[in-house]
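Predict fold of inositol-phosphate phosphatase; 281 aa.
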Amino acid sequence: MIDSNETIEEFLAQHASDVEEAIRKAAATEIMPRWRRLAAHEVDEKNGPHDLVTDADRKAELYLTDVLVDLLPGSVVVGEEAVHANPASYDAICGDAPVWIVDPVDGTRQFVHGDAGFCTLVALAHGGTLLASWTYAPARDQFATAQRGKGAYLDGERLFAGVPEPGRDLRVATSHPDYTTDEQKHALIGLRTEGVAPRPCGSAGLEYLAIARGESDATAFSWEAAWDHAAGLLLVEEAGGTHLTRTGEPFRITGGNDLPFTAARDAATARHVAGLLSGGA
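Predicted 3D structure, encoded as tokens:
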């Protein structure tokens, strides 16, 4: 079993491209052939009409689980669909083994509707620390990667989030109301203020990519599921951004965060949005 971050770094130096190849193959064989071709029996509801799962989600996750564990012996996978089937499997994020965090189709609702705004998310973490991430939007032919301390890249080009332009409203992607508690709805109301332009989010992974590219300024998300956030959080960090909960602490993939939380292009924007969410603007 891998027992040190240094060894994982060696693994990444040798096999990061193999992970990318596996993600591309999962998309090519299990996801894209079903895009805009889904039959009714290939789509199910998990927790209501806004929480969908398809055969593409299930089969791509199974493919990635097999390949990723083979690539890194001793590692485990926490995947969205496996956790839905067995919630206790989520606890592996807090375990001793290196963990692959997988969302096979992030933005399933968009995928089902034939929209191009979906992606596959994979992150590698150890001891609660994110070490590497891969974000692949196959319908847009975009592939973003990040490694801790080594930068973020989109299709081989370095990403820099930059800072918001002075005098322009902050562009903030927010949680869908269906996924918020009454307390979280009240917190999100803090964004309805001068200088902020909140809007409903799409695929979480693509929202993080937009921040890393400097196309969006921040998020305000109210749920903790690591498969939605892990890859994007590292991408934003390595592009120069940051993330904070309402108490001013970084978001933890292991849970226990004060929600909603924000990820932003720069520290000043993160502090401002976190302050608005906590009522302390």
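Residues 245 and 261 are 4 Å apart (CA to CA).
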